[in-house]
């Protein structure tokens, strides 16, 4: 089981009225991802500017965007990416899933 | 045939539109693409070619407006491109930015270079080459003289004779199409972020949160949600 961290942006997003009826489902998806972060919820590796982050389905419309510390370029070889400057990076276990935000395919 | 697009079709339309603007600017050896009138007619040429041949690349809906074919979907895409810094607009019209050029090239290399998508790439290249250097005035003359098949009546008509408000291009369903643009799920997910100002900004904010240590645990986030 991986551990999870969440951005303040993610936490604030959950207060959006659009998600009031979906909180249980979103929580369930995060827990599925914590168990199998590479395959749960139709996980897809993002590309280009978002390389080394992942997108997973909440439903047809919404996605969970997250990053697994094991896949971070600071800890392994690979494509460059935005998020390489986490505070106290060295103190965070590599088996950590960092939930960034919820995106909307309708926007 | 439909009037409205599915979310994935909105994303692929924006991707193809950006590539068309990039190819037009490149052919002109300039960053200037043209004014709004011209930039509305270029995707019409491409979308009409695809629609008439039942090739499901663009899914833009065009109707007859006072100044020829118009698509509200194109307006919406321009607004997103401007907010994302992929285009700028001045008195001469739209210019593509280095960021827009780079993203268009990535789409060309990773999506349109797929052998299955060659026909879509060829149509975009052909429109950019044939019409990209023409003035808006000349393009308008060509548009008004064009004869097209109308989606709702099965008849053919010159664009100048089509009634205001009449649909000219509609959204093909998959089972009506002879071929469909193929985009890998990973690229579709990526473009959903890359081409949406709201999604891209949210993630940028999230990166800042992790850099500044504005981070919460699983228990803190879900403390009020049971189950």
- Between the first and last Cα atoms of chain A, what is the distance in angstroms? 33 Å
Largest sheet of chain A: 5 strands, mixed
Q: What assembly state would you assign to the polypeptide chains in this entry? A: heterodimer
CA radius of gyration of chain A: 13 Å
Work out the strand percent of chain B.
5-15%
Helix content of chain B: 40-55%
Q: What average pLDDT do the residues of chain B reach?
A: 94
Unreliable residue runs of chain B = none
Average of pLDDT of chain A: 88
Physical arrangement of strands within the biggest beta sheet of chain B: 1-6-5
Which runs of chain A of at least 5 residues are low in confidence (pLDDT < 50)?
none
Q: Supply the number of structural domains of chain B.
A: 1
SSE order of chain B, one letter for each helix or strand: HEHEEEHEEHHHEEEEHHEH
Structural class of chain A: alpha+beta
Helix content of chain A: 10-25%
What strand line-up does the widest sheet of chain A have? 1-5-4-3-2
Protein model, in words:
Chain A is built from two helices and five strands. In chain A, strand 2 and strand 3 form a beta hairpin. Chain A is 18% helix and 25% strand. With 107 residues, chain A is of the alpha+beta class. Chain A has helices at residues 8-13, 23-35; strands at residues 3-7, 44-45, 54-57, 62-68, 96-104. Chain A has a five-stranded mixed beta sheet. The termini of chain A are far apart. With 227 residues, chain B is of the alpha+beta class. Chain B has one domain. In chain B, helix 1 (7-27) packs across helix 3 (72-84) and helix 2 runs parallel beside helix 6. The A-B interface holds A 3-11, 13-14, 23-24, 27-28, 30, 34, 42, 44-50, 53, 55, 60-61, 63, 65, 82-83, 85-88, 98, 100-107 and B 7-8, 10-11, 103, 106, 110, 185-187, 189-190, 192-194, 196, 198-199, 202-207, 209-218, 220-222, 225, 227. Strand 1 of chain A pairs antiparallel with strand 11 (215-217) of chain B, so a sheet runs across the interface.
